[in-house]
Amino acid sequence: MDISIKDGTIVTANDMFRADIGIRNGKIASIGHDITGMENIDASGKYILPGVIEIQSHFEAAFGNTRSIDNFFKGTQTAACGGVTTIFDTVIPKSDESLLEAIKNRRQLLDAQAAIDYSLHLCLPEAQENFLSEIPQVLNEGLPSFEAFLCSHAAELVHQDSSLLELMETISKAGGLLMVHCGNQALLQQASQRYPLEDPLAMTHYPQLCTPQSEAEAVYRLMMLAHSTPCTLHLNHLSTRESLTQALQHHPLQSRIYTGTDLHYLTHNENVYKQPDARNYTVLPPLRSQADQTCLWKGIQAGTIQTLSSNHWPFTREQKKLGEDLASIPAGFANLELLLPMLYHQGVRSRHIDLMQLVAVLSTNPARIFGLSHKGSIAVGKDADLVIFNPLLKKTLSSSNLHSESDFCLYEGQELQGYPEMTLSRGRIVCDNGKFTGEQGAGQFIARSI
Question: Which residues form a coiled coil (predicted)?
Answer without folding.
Answer: none
